[in-house]
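pasting for the record
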Amino acid sequence: MLSFIEKIVFVLLALGCFGASFVTFGRMFRAISIGTNPLNWKDILKNWQVGLFAFFSQKTLFKTRPVVGLIHAFVAWGFTLYLIVNIVDVLYGFIPGFSFLPNNIFGNIYRLFVDVFSLLILFGVVYFLARRFILKDQRLEINKPVMLSELAVSGMRFDSLLVGSFIILHVGSRFLSASFEIAHTQSDWSQPGANMMSKLWIGLQPDSIVMMEHITWWMALGLILLFLPYFPMSKHAHLFMGPLNIMAKEKRRSMAAIEKIDFEDDSIEQFGSSRLHHLPQTQLLDGYACIQCSRCQDACPAYVTGKELSPSALEINKRYFLNENLTDLADGKEIDIPLTDWMLTEEAAWSCTTCGYCVEVCPVGNEPMVDILRARQDLVMMESKFPKDAMETFEKMENYGNPWGLSPQDRENWMEGRDVPLMREKKEAEVLYWAGCSGAYDSRGREISQAVVDVMNKAGVDFASLGNEETCTGDSARRIGNEYLFQTMAEQNKETFDQYKFKKIVTQCPHCFTTLKNDYAELGVELEVVHHSQFIDELIETKKIEPKPWMDEDVTFHDPCYLGRHNNEYDAPRNVIQSILRDGELKEMEQSKSESFCCGAGGGNMWYEVKTGDRINQTRVKQAVETKAKTVAAACNFCNIMLEDGLKTTGNDEEVNIMDIAEMVSKGLNN
């Protein structure tokens, strides 16, 4: 099809564009390499199946926004098909008389797929452009008071328009080229769309049709070549950086369980992340993998309630900061600008409840929450910039072994009137019952601890409690950023554990649950830990207890973030609730299970308050009230505290009450 001169020009253009692409792609990866914790390419390549599955299935797009996800998937699948289409079209242009599998069923299927997906791509991209620029979908917007750099604001719009226009011109030109090819050859039923389009060219002269076929061929293939060098700088980079990011992700015990800091290593001069080069390379990769879809902020409790944090803005700021300084970063220069000056504000860092929604929902495996945890470590351990109330909490944990600041000798007070064996007397037991700080000191927490003990005694469980020997797990210290205090408390608990023999730990606090199970494992302390919802569910399943159904009114369940998203447990608490329902029903809130909305206590927010915007617990309580259920079931002491406060401050405490699932079962056993 191409003339000799055209072939020479195409080869020269291809060589020039591939050469320029080698430079820009190289800069991008060298910029990423400025981070800590180098990417282990050997391990990444071992995960090729994971990346390939994510690339072809587009499964991660369907976690939320299923309709939009499906449209995006068709665009992605079509563009993936175009990787083959472009190669075939180059062969068609260079080899006289070339046709891909002519008069062959496989060739016809190929042409049909290309035709159909060309139209799907065009429809999808037009829809996405209209959604962003005409309909101005609020889910794609990032509202004040979130910090979004001016470069990011203008860059997002330019990038979206440029990439959208490129895809329309590339695919549209190729579609037109196919129609012109059909117009000067013969009708082709295997390309219904292009075949229909070809009818428009009936009045054109044969020479004009051939010329237009050449022009549209050049537009389609030329655009691809010209766009390649810019590819790493554009949001379109997520096409391959997304699957790569998923392949490169570190295996964590849970979302918030980051690696241990070795405080004995004198060579470590920086704790946490203050500058871009302090972030691990996987976190820099996140910036280029970001789709800018803003799914991560749909149920972010901080963003939804009007605070300065948007996990989406964090990643978008990162992308454009990398691009703005790409040449310097690629040359190995360290940019001495604090993260809090351009990535997120200090208040945004303290607004995070570590609920994990942003990590759970991201289709390309980004972890903005982990960036925040690292920034907090720097603010606490290097800068001493953190909320005053957090300082008081640290002091209470350090001096009293609990964030309430109450006497360690009062830990056993909740046991009054209950038969609670003590580990110091028994020395060994099947189950170590961990009441936790809230279970020992908070008035409602003590009632929940008593209910758990009642259930265990009814079931004949061989258990014991540490009583006054128990001390805080250090969860809040770690989430707020005081890694040193966390490790100190973990070591103290390890020494206590080593004195006794037990098979598993049972606790009603999801924060204690995930810290003992996952965070301690990062320190080398392997424990079998079970949440009380799982333990009670098993007792009911094995008929060691048979609570009588007594609940006649509807119940709604609030999923604790640290039980659900952090540990993927959604069924056990619901099974327990079902066991006590008589005439009532279990009604789900608008946001439940993996999309559950946070109570606002996680990430240390239990101990300090960010006053910007609305209160998170009130927003969650309103969702609970909308179900018309008279009881909100909880499975977390912190959630219980926050929900009860939310009911009081919204004036709903007379109509709705909060009960822990252990209290529900205990009542069913005593009826």
